[in-house]
Amino acid sequence: MPPLFFRGSSFPLVCPEFLTNQTLCEDIFRDQRDHILAGSGQPVGKAERVPGGWKVTGEWPFASGCQNAEWIGGNCVMMEGGSPIDASHGPGPMTRMCLMPAEQWEIRDTWHTMGLRGTGSHHVALTDVLVPDENFFEFPFGTSFAPDPIFAKFLEHMMLAHAAVPVGIAEGAIMDLVKVAGSGVKQLFMTTPLVETERFKEGVARLDADLKAARALLEAEAARVWQNPERSTVKDISRVAEQRQAAVWITAACVRVAEGCFELAGSRAVYETSPLQRRVRDLRVAAQHVAVHPRHYVAAGTAMLARMS
Fold first, then answer.
1. Do 129 and 58 have their domain in common?
2. pLDDT in tens, 137-190
3. Where in 112-238 does DSSP place strands (E)?
4. Domain that holds residue 215
């Protein structure tokens, strides 16, 4: 899950089936300063009910930004007497996000990857840590995280955030390519500088068109979410089908842009000193995220057919 950068405020967190999170929010935001929160949405932890709260144990992957976070969260299966508590809405166990100060967590050095190395998406862990009721909330569904409109549509925007990162990386790839070509480089057996060849001009124009299309879809979908007056409180993943559809397509388009830039740059792109090889690696890793997996086209197709029938 990407790190969250929250502006200082005094809004309350709201959590059904638990105490109000107003105390927690006041603890975090009483100084009116900005704070960084990181966490993992995978429900791989266990929270066992004990006197005074819950005893939490687990190890959560992909906690991007955890090394700079002030608070870290992890989704838990809520337990009592060694058995999962049934969810009140829908099948399956009750899951809740527990949020605790970063110093309570162990950061395990696991993020050794081919790309996106700078995100620091290490595993984070808690072992038999007592967490009070007010430090839990329902994520990503449930009552709005806070009254602010952005949290009413948090899941939709979280999906689109996973598309914004690839757009930025692809834009950087085109800038890197133009910089390489602008240095006057010539390819082997060519007498004309790369930047002056018709193949380069056509290629970079096609890549720029792909990037513009990706950015336009991202901006259009973000605007549509904001213009929709409905508050997203229904526990139904189909309500974000169109945002997932957009994120999957945008990410794939950006991968094509970076790989096209890599190919146009020629052999210079293969060296570790070339930023283009890093752009390709970063986008390939970004495209592996569950939020942009091609299988999400199925939900989008189902929603589209229902809308048109």
1. yes
2. 887 665 544 555 556 677 788 889 999 999 999 999 999 999 988 777 776 666
3. 123-131, 136-137
4. 153-308
- Over the stretch 262-308, which tens digit does the pLDDT of each residue have? 999 988 899 999 999 999 999 999 999 988 999 999 989 998 898 88
Calpha distance 181→271 (Å, rounded): 16
Q: Which of 104, 137, 170 is the last residue of a domain?
A: 137
Decide the pairing of beta strands 71-80 and 35-50.
Answer: parallel
SS3 96: strand
**Is-contact 136 97, C-beta < 8 A?**
yes
Asked if the bond preceding 12 is cis, omega within 30° of 0, the reply is: no
The model carries a pTM of 0.83
Give yes or no: residues 179 and 85 share one domain.
no
* Residue 213 shares a structural domain with residue 261: yes
Cα 81 from Cα 47, distance rounded (Å): 11
* Separation of alpha carbons 267 and 278, rounded Å: 14
Total structural domains in the chain?
Answer: 2
